[in-house]
Amino acid sequence: MTKSYFHLTRGNSVKKNILILVTFLFILNGCAQFQSDKVNQRQWQEKSINSNVDAINHSPQFSGKIRVTSEVNEGAVILIGQATDEETKKNVESYVQTLPGVKKTYNQIRVRPLISFDQISNDVWLTTKVKSAILSEDKLDNYTIKVVTENKEVFLIGSAPPEEAEIAANIARHVAGVNKVVKAFTNKTSDSSSVNSTPATNLNDSSTTQNNPDNIVDDSPMVTDNSGLIIEEPNTLIDESDVSN
């Protein structure tokens, strides 16, 4: 009788453990699905923001006055391109700030005539050269850095410690044809344990940028927000003898 009781108790214990395990796996799967849904929702929202920004280039209000693209990361929107006047530049930013999912805008639109098709083609080639140069640097293997070029200005966008971000910028500024390098990074320490959280405002064009449209690189006032995004806009001249083809 005692032996039968032992087997019965052990059987109940096994069933209980199995039930706990199944419940745990169900909860774990639910958490994973929740995280996946959040990622998918964020990606969809970022695509929606980019699509809306692209659409305003052809809207009656802005057609012929702007050439603007956007880069979005967790609600932070970097606006890149040209506007024919300051008011139009501000109006574009005001519109983008009303889009669902936009938490903050960084206005890197330049007030100048819209660039030509030839310059657009040249920018594509510069992007290819900068990407290739960055990919060849072993110290940057663990980081994903997006390269966007607009009118010979190279924007480096990603998440990396300050040292690695500067390595990437230094590589870009030594590529022939690049006039300016703007860093836009989520500034993490090397062990990814902390994020810069200094308050900030939008970064606008400096007077040096407006007066010296050519051969400008990095001497960088920094702007950051509480999500850790830092934009460093350069304002010193490049030494043309110190670049590679």
Automatic annotation (TrEMBL):
Residues 188-227 are annotated as: Disordered. This is BON domain-containing protein. The keyword Signal applies. The keyword Signal applies. It comes from the Bacteria. It comes from Vibrio casei. Residues 41-113, 122-189 form the BON domain. Keywords: Signal. It holds the Pfam family BON. Residues 188-214 have a biased composition (Polar residues). InterPro entries: BON_dom, Lipoprotein_DolP, Transpt-assoc_nodulatn_dom_bac. Coiled coil: none annotated. PANTHER family: BON DOMAIN-CONTAINING PROTEIN, OUTER MEMBRANE LIPOPROTEIN DOLP.
